[in-house]
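Minutes, project check-in

Agenda point 3 was the complex the collaborators sent over. CS summarized: two entities, 612 residues total, and the question is how they sit relative to each other. Sequences were read into the notes so everyone works from the same version.
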Amino acid sequence: MTMARTFATRLGLRALGAAVTILLASLLVYGSLFLMPGDPVLALTGGRRLTPEQIEALRHAYGFDRSFAQGYLDWAGGVLHLDFGTSLTYQSDVGALITSRLDVSAPLIAYAASLALLFGLGLALLSAVKGGRVNRAMAVVASTATATPPFVSAIVLLAVFAVGLGWFPSTGAGDGGPADRLWHLTLPAIAMALVSFGVLSRVGHAAFTEELRREHVEVARSRGVGGAALITRHVVRNALAPLVTVIGVLLVSLFAGTAVVETAFGLDGVGSLLISSVSRRDFPVVQGIALIAVVLFVIVNTLVDLVLPLVDPRAAAGRKAAP
Amino acid sequence: MTLTIPRLRAKAARGRRRRPLTLVLATAFLVLVAAMGLLAPVLAPHSPDETSLLNALAPPGTEGHWLGTDSTGRDVLSRVMHGARLSLLAPLGVVLLSLVLGTAIGLLAARAGGWVDAVLSRGMDIVFAFPSLLLVILSVAVFGPGLTAPICVLAIAYTPFIGRVVRSVAIQEGARPYLESYRVMGFGELRVTLRHLLPNVLPVIIAQSALSFGYALVDLASLSYLGLGVRPPDADWGSMISQAQSAILQGSPWSGLMPGIAVLLTVVCVNLLGEHLGGSISGKRSEET
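CS then shared the predicted structure for the full assembly.
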C-alpha cells in the first residue's frame, strides 16, 4: 500500500472512531438525566420553585414527554445547532455563557501549556545533555512537580507570592488589557502547569537520553556536527514521537485542571462555571460543558494519532517506533 | 515466581545503593500516616471538632497545638490525623475496585482475543482518554454530593490503568510454553488463567495499583477541595484546605499548608514505591527477553 492510501485509511478509521466516541458520550450525557434519583425534572430543577408552565416547558425541552430515542434525537439536534438549552441559575443561553467564560479559560490554558512545554522540554534537554549532577537535581525537581496536586501548588503560590510577598494579585482575572490579564493569570498558570511540567521533563529526558546514545548521533558527532545542529536535527527530531503522545494527554488534563485552579484563584472561567453549576445543580450548563469537553478531547486525541505518523514514519508503517 | 523474587532482590541490591534508603523512608512515612489515621481517636491531642475562638489561627509550635489551629481554633494536628482516615480509605476503595475490574477485563481480553479483545481494548482506550477528575465532577452532578458515587466512578476511570497492563503481560505470558503444557494436561481455561497465569501478572498489578492510589488520593482530595466531596462534619485533607482558603488570603496560611503538605508527602512516597516496584518489574522483563 502506498503512503497516501495508508494515511487515507487511517484518517477514515480515526474519524469513524471519533464519531462513535462522541455518539456514545452524548448518549451518556443525555441519559444521565434518567440515572438521577427521583423524577428527572425535579432533579433538573434542583429544588428551585418553578411554575407549572416552566416545568412543562422543561419536560418538553428535555423530551421527557416523548420516548427516550425521540427525546435524545431532538436534544442532539439542538446541540448540533449549538443550542445547549438555558441555564437555570443565570436564565441565559448556555452556549453564550460558556463562550463568555472562554475569555479567561482559553488564555489560561494557552499560558499554562506554553510554560509546561518551554520549561519541561528545556529542563529535559539540559539534563539529558549535561548529565551528572544536573540530571540528579532535575529528577528530584521533576518528581516533586509531578506529585504536587494543583490545589496544593495553588495555595502555596497564593500564600507566598500573592499574600506574603504581594508580587501578584490573589483573585480575579484583571480587566486592564492583555498585560494586566497576563499578570493576573501568572500564578494560576504556574499552578496548573506544574504537573505537566514534571511529566514532560521526565518523558522528554528519557526520550532525549535514548536518542543521544544512538549510533546515528555518534556518527553525526564524528562527522563534526555539533552543538545546536546536533541537538535539533538528530536528537529532538527523533524524540518527537513519544513527546507528541504525552503532549496530547497533558493538554486534555490542563482543560480538566481549570476547574481546580480557577476555583482556587477566584477566576470566572469555564472550569469554575462547571464547579458552581454542579453545586447549584444547574444541569443544562453541566451538560453543555461536558459535551464540549468530550468533543475537545476526541479532537486532541485524533490529532495526536494523525500527527504521529507525520512525525515518525515508522508509526505509519505500523512498526514499533523504537527498534 | 520463587525463581524471580531472589533475582529481583539481587538486582535491587546490586543496582543503586541510594534507592533503598529513600524507599525505607517512604515506606516508614506511609506506615506512620496510616497508623496516625488508624489510631487518631486515641493519639490525637484534641477532638478534631473542638473549637476555641480565643485560640484561632495560632501558628505552628504553639503550646498544646504543635501544628497550630485553624480559623475556628480547632487543633490542626488532630484534624490532619482524623482527616487521614477518609483521605486514605477512599482511594483504597478506588484501588481495590479498579483492581478487580481491571484484572478481570485485562485477563478476559487477553485470553478471549478476537472481537472481545477489540471491544474491551477500545472501551478502555475511550475511558483512558478522559481526565478522571472531570468524570468524578460530572458524577457528582448526576448523583449528588458524597463519596460513594465518586469512588465507583474513579474505580471505572482507573480500570484501564490496570486492565491495559494486565492484558499486555497476560498476552506475553500466554505465549509461553508452560501455559500450553497445562492446557495439554487437560486443565480448563479458567483454571489455567486464575491458578497459573494470574500469579505471574500479580507484580505488575501491585505496582500499577500503588500509582493509581496516588492519583485517586489527589482526585478525591481535589473534589473535596472544590466542595463536592466529603460533607461536614466529615473532613479530609482536601476539605481542610478548602476551609483554610480565606485564612490563607488573610495571611495565616498554616492551617491550609499542613494538610497540603500531608497530601504532597503521601503522594510523593506512594509514587516512589510504585515506580520502584514497576521499575524492578520492567527491569526483570527486559532482562529476560
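Noted in discussion: Confidence is low (pLDDT under 50) at residues 1-17, 284-289 of chain B.
Follow-up: revisit at the next meeting once the mutant set is ready.
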